[in-house]
């Protein structure tokens, strides 16, 4: 038995409610043989999982992502590292050559995760996920090695 009356939404109103679309980009680094990533070097994403925005581009061979539209973006990432890298691993989100957000190795050995909410007010904005550790970091031999997702926030 229902104690409330369901609210009926007209087709016209339903259409307007669904006009907002999530735009973004999802990347993965899959090919790796446990290489070492020197300090300051970017993760090179080699697989675009999803892309539903013309305003976000990925330059796979450079490890750079370019945002071409002013706005707010939610970015999250994870990087799998070898246990031999110890507890010193740190990765940073670099926007236009300035570090915006840093993540360090948590208690769970082998995975570094991070996230950032950034405001892009000048375009194009260039983003990279870099090794922010003072030493080389051994990336995992297992795939996927790294993931990064960018979503527009409205």
What is the arithmetic mean of pLDDT? 82
The low-pLDDT segments are 1-18
**CATH classification class:** Mainly Beta
**Total number of β-strand segments?**
12
Alpha-carbon distance between the termini? 39 Å
* Beta-strand content: over 45%
Describe this structure as you would to a colleague.
The radius of gyration is 19 Å and the shape is globular. The chain starts with 10 loop residues before the first helix and ends with a strand. The model is unreliable at 1-18 (pLDDT under 50). The chain has 1 helix and 12 strands. It has one helix at residues 11-17; strands at residues 24-29, 36-37, 47-51, 56-59, 64-67, 71-80, 90-95, 98-104, 111-120, 125-131, 137-138, 146-153. It has a single domain (29-153), classed as Jelly Rolls (Sandwich), CATH 2.60.120.40. The chain has 154 residues and is mostly beta strands.
